[in-house]
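hi! just following up on the protien thing from before. the input was this:
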Amino acid sequence: MLPISTPLPSETSTEDPIASLRDLLERSRTPPRQEPKATPSPTSERPRSLLGEVIDTHHSELPGYVFVRWSAGSEQVARWLECVRTVVPQRGDRVLLDQPANWPEALVVAMLEPPCPGAIQPPPSEASQTITVPSGQCVRIADARGNSLIEVQGSSQGPVVRLIGDDVDLLVDGKLRLRAEAIELRGGRGGVDIRTDAETVVRGRFIRLN
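and the predicted 3d structure came back as:
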């Protein structure tokens, strides 16, 4: 009988050919791993500058913030925004808003100077009319019976508007706003009477009572 040849130890294989074939098929079915796409950061947004108007200057919980309104296309936007340290606007001021690239909201960075009294005003529209009042005279509006209602005249300190009558009512369906650099209210011997059906709020950096 011929001797049976025994395989050498180096030629001995312990791998299962069926399992190896199964692994190969599984690898061919699995799609290659994809790296996650980079999400754009909010800091990549382009900064922009806007022009707004200050509506309110006092926030009970956010000192240094003012309430600003501006136009965004066809819409009106109003928000509380923080001011830079050197900018202290007042109500009615026009302010410049700038949004840094790494900040989620705009900042109030500057104020625009109010128009000078001698500044060139835009020409009136065709529908408007201008009435020139000579010095020392006034324009008077009267009712159908000839009773005077309003007088308007010029003075060295500016225009003077006089409402003629013992009792005058200013009636507005919505909100009445008085805007000026300084407001002074004076009452005579009749006193001053302030009444409201709602809450009364007095706001100011300093409030003096005397």
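Residues 135-164 form one domain.
The longest strand covers residues 75-83.
cheers
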